[in-house]
Amino acid sequence: MLSGPTSHVETVDSVMIYIVGISVILLLGVTAAMIYFVFKYHRKKGHKPKDIHGSVLLETIWIVIPTLLVLSMFYFGYTGFREMRLVPDNAMEINVTARMWQWSFNYGSGMQTDSLYVPQGQPIKLLLNSADVNHSFFIPAFRVKEDVIAGRTNYLVFTPDEIGKYDVACAEYCGLKHSMMYTKVIVMAREEFDNWYTRSSEKTDSNGEAD
Ligand SMILES: [Cu+2]
Questions:
Q1: Residue 7 to residue 182: CA distance in whole angstroms
Q2: Does residue 116 share a domain with residue 196?
Q3: What is the pLDDT of residues 127-143, one digit of tens each?
């Protein structure tokens, strides 16, 4: 956790730890207070309970603190969301088509692949389209996920920092073989990618298929 093949991993995991951390502290606090009150205020003979009609101090505290906590969660979450949506000027565009039940990637030159090939350190903008129903493009290792909506072009931005092969999954139930709708994203060194791209473009046949 907190470091990974994209800088986005650190952002997402930090938000996750922050929210889970606050939730655990609150859970323990509420449970401890509950147990304490059960013992402190259990029924005693000859004891008449007091009626309490509000407390401005207490009410202010329990309105202000949760509001600040929720706003801070929103702020950190939104910061991470922006990383997936703000497109850097030098982003490389790749068209992604989802169909039941496979992915295909088109690099603009007419070249098409079943796996996604990207150069290391290059901001990537994926243009997401569906040929049939709704899908969702998900790279768990990069902590990025975006819906692929039928009849609309959606997009997703990431910068792969580490060379390697990572799973791509469909994260929106799309029919019988949804659970098999996997492929890979292959992050290559810039030079290796350029060689692969030139080689594959040459090999591209009339169907536009290369691999
Ligand atoms: Cu799908």
A1: 23
A2: yes
A3: 999 999 999 999 999 99
Residue 184 bridge partners (DSSP): 167
List, for residues 10-39, the tens digit of each pLDDT value: 889 999 999 999 999 999 999 999 999 999
Q: How far does the centroid of ligand 1 lie from the alpha carbon of residue 125, in Å? A: 20
Q: Identify whether 119 is part of a domain.
A: yes
Cα(147) to centroid(ligand 1), Å = 10
| Rounded CA separation 134/150 (Å) | 5
Cα(148) to ligand 1 centroid in Å equals 9
Sign of the CA dihedral running 37, 43, 45, 49 = positive
| 12 and 113 assigned to the same domain | no
Specify the number of domains making up the chain: 2
- Residue 72, CA distances (Å) to 24, 67, 75, 111 in order: 16, 9, 5, 45
* Rounded percentage of the chain residues whose pLDDT exceeds 70: 96
114 shares a domain with 44: no
Ligand 1 centroid distance, CA of 195 (Å): 31
| Predicted pLDDT of residue 18 | 94
pLDDT digit string, tens, across residues 57-100:
999 999 999 999 999 999 999 988 888 889 999 999 999 999 99
Q: Which domain holds residue 185?
A: 92-203
Tell how far the Cα of 140 is from the centroid of ligand 1, in angstroms.
15
Ion ligand 1: residues, CB within 5 A, are 135, 170, 174, 181
